[in-house]
Design goal:
Radius of gyration: 20 Å
Number of strands: 12
Largest sheet: 10 strands, antiparallel
Helix content: 10-25%
Number of domains: 1
């Protein structure tokens, strides 16, 4: 092998190494993996209501969120104009989430590190909207210590007040929903939202949910 061939050989493996490293970084940046049971700090009712294994979502930059979803979502076939998930009911318990480093919700509000319940809420069609969103479907985060009974049914104002405890302000902690991709994956939409997709057992078989874990309203 002459000097030029040796140089080409070295360059080839150098480029191949860089491609491998960059590919590994890209794959590791945004990922979903299964995790263990929910935190011991949540009520026994919450622990019994969710699946034993959770989903740990890791995004570029090191942010993580760990989700445990309901063992069986109650779904009802109904037609709701514009809704992505009309089968779900307002205030319905969807799961539990842990934010080890906090979270920025769809309004850009800071949610402190901690454990929260997630309840579905359709955006009220009264003009007092929570923010321009891809769909009117949201998950409201409530401190788990203030929502220990998953079967509880809250009136809308009570639900909003409980969720506002997550932000320490007057507005609830809102996590927008999107159309899902492949179950157990993270993908970016054309609008730049990062969406975690999960298939959750339901009374109709399975409900695939798309949850925006990164991205906020434009206004």
């Amino acid at each position: 092998m002459d000097h030029m061939d040796a140089a080409r050989h070295r360059n080839f493996f150098h480029i191949a190494f860089l491609v491998t490293v960059l590919t590994t970084v890209a794959v590791a940046a945004d990922k979903v993996e299964r995790s263990g049971p929910p935190p011991a700090s949540v009520s026994s009712e919450l622990r019994q209501a969710v699946e034993e294994k959770g989903y740990r979502v890791t995004l570029d930059g090191g942010w993580t969120g760990e989700f445990w979803f309901a063992k069986n979502l109650a779904t009802t076939k109904k037609d709701v104009s514009g809704a992505l998930y009309p089968e779900l009911s307002d205030g319905e318990f969807v799961g539990v989430v842990s934010f080890p480093r906090g979270f920025s919700d769809y309004r850009g509000q800071s949610i402190p590190a901690g454990v929260y319940t997630l309840r579905y809420q359709l955006l009220p069609q009264d003009g007092n909207h929570l923010g321009v969103a891809p769909s009117p479907d949201f998950l409201l985060a409530i401190p788990a210590a203030d929502d220990s009974h998953p079967d509880a049914i809250y009136p809308y104002k009570k639900l909003v007040a409980l969720s506002a405890k997550s932000t320490g302000g007057n507005h609830p902690a809102v996590i927008a929903m999107e159309g899902g991709g492949a179950a157990g994956s993270v993908n970016m939409t054309d609008q730049g939202y990062v969406v975690f997709t999960v298939a959750v057992p339901s009374s109709s078989g399975s409900e695939k949910l798309g949850i925006i874990v990164k991205g906020s309203a434009s206004q």
